[in-house]
Specification:
By secondary structure, this protein is an alpha+beta fold. It is built from 14 helices and 7 strands. It has 3 domains: 191 residues, no CATH class; 64 residues; 159 residues, 2-Layer Sandwich (Heat Shock Protein 90), CATH 3.30.565.10.
Length: 445
Amino acid sequence: MASPVATFMPAGGRNRHETVERLRQRTLVYIRWVAVLGQLVSLLVVRYGLGFEFPLGWALAVVAASAVLNLVIMTRQPLGVRLGDRATALYLAYDILQLSALLYLTGGLQNPFSVLVLAPVIVSATVLSRLSTIALGLLAGFAITALALWHLPFPWTDGRFALPSIYVLGIWEALALGIVFTAAYVGSVSEEARRMSDALAATQMTLAREQRLSALGGLAAAAAHELGSPLSTIAVVAREMKRELPEDSALAEDVDLLIEQSGRCRDILAGLSKQPEVDPGDPFARLPISALAEAAAEPFRDGPIEMRILRPEQTSGAAGQAAGEIREPVVTRSPELLHGLGTLIENATQFARKAVEVEIAWSDERVTICVRDDGPGFAANVRDRLGEPYISSRDDEGHMGLGIFIATTLLRRTEAEITFVNSPKGGAEVAVAWNRGTMEGEERG
């Protein structure tokens, strides 16, 4: 006998109910047709091939019930509809009851096909909510308990075959533990996969938004470049016209207005073409690493937490003095760098008591930005898992625990190495380091 199982598309929603809606009714219907065919073939082979006696008519009626159900669904409902949690749970509950009816007619738990009662529960653990999985698990548990106590004799050639009661009890225990273990195991693995998928989707949305802003800035710069030449020609012709016109000409005022407006257009286009030192909204410009850190920290300067940007010459020790004598790296103001560093700085301000330090250092081989706060530091239960999605020590329900995951994902796209430690002086410290040659080589490329 075959038991229908459902397939599902990868999770991308925010909760399990949204994930279930990715399961199409067509999938359940087609898989049930496969189950009907498998059950029918199994019954006929056992009855006529092996010669075992059992109530074939009733068994065929149970199989026919699934066929009729499929026909009703196919004629009355669109197969392309995506099912919700409750509807899918009802489908799977029917599968458990239908399979239990067949097992009752063919020996109960002594039938080796009794293991298939696990299939609907596993499917539920994969795609349904925890409540639905628990309900289906209980239904399967009641079913195997009833089958252990009440069932027709197991069909055999001489009609006298019967397994010892202790062995049937062992089968029941194995199935019961299998329902609990597989549901919990498959459910936890599927939940982890869903959470990772949701977190990656959030990261992709964030990066796509930044890239759209970057593309908009690029279009603006291109438009400014292309319109510069014709606008200059218009301004030159307008000035020539003004020189040629008599002072009392009726067109003099119009020519003055044309010159004024062309000058205004030139100023607007010049603004679109400014470098980041003048126009922080242009994400395509190159700028020193310290200016990049300043830009990432700028949105968080107005809060109650003091923001300190420390360059090498402001740090004590030989390392700071050596870095001050080396040319400062110039980097591309990419969305990954800005958003990644900005998220780390924002996270530090949310945990800091009084101040956050952003320390910049560089050498001939390395570039490092260290974000340090004076807060309580990283909790011991999350320190080793930082960088994974949905990891947070906060108690507020609205916090998703995705900030550090998104920041590390974006920064690692720039080939950064990220370390999380608790500072000996107290507070948390996040160090982001790049290979200088790779970073500047990417800019030149």
